[in-house]
Design goal:
- The chain is built from five helices and six strands.
- Strand 1 and strand 2 form a beta hairpin.
- It has 135 residues and is of the alpha+beta class.
- It is globular and about 40 Å long.
- The chain has a six-stranded mixed sheet, sandwiched between helices.
- 38% of the residues lie in helices and 24% in strands.
Length: 135
């Protein structure tokens, strides 16, 4: 089934839900917001499938919190910065090419984007094995 894989979260609290919907992303945000104690927003979304969602869950499992919720740190933090930068503002659709570039530059690459970031911790914050075809 095709739909969208979304990144809904709160940057201040460093949390993000990576999910899938065949419906409206705004509708999902409203549903998720109801049960959240903090204000959430749509950070970005891509056209995708449930398998794409599952691959992202496996990729970022080292920093998983609970279920589909993840801590925004390490490679996921860099990845989301790429996605929101490509979208030019939070909450917009990211193209397949931009998504692939974000995966390549932030998940496959083990070099942190800044020298002050601990390289060992950065390298272990995601499992790049799902994305070998983009290397």
């Amino acid at each position: 089934m095709t739909g969208v894989v979304y990144f809904i979260g709160n940057l201040e609290h460093k949390i993000v839900k990576i999910g899938f919907t065949a419906g409206s992303v705004l509708g999902r945000l409203k549903g998720i917001q109801t049960g959240s104690p903090v204000r959430l927003s749509i950070l970005a979304y891509i056209e995708g499938t449930r398998e794409d969602e599952a691959r992202l869950h496996r990729t970022f499992s080292p920093i998983g919190l609970f279920g589909e919720w993840f801590s925004i740190e390490g490679k996921l933090d860099s990845f989301l910065c790429y996605l929101t930068g490509y979208a030019e503002e939070s909450g917009l659709l990211v193209s397949d090419e931009q998504f692939a570039a974000a995966i390549h530059d932030n998940v496959i690459n083990d070099h942190p984007p800044h020298p002050s970031i601990n390289a060992d911790l950065y390298a272990t914050s995601a499992d790049a094995s799902e994305w070998g075809h983009l290397a």
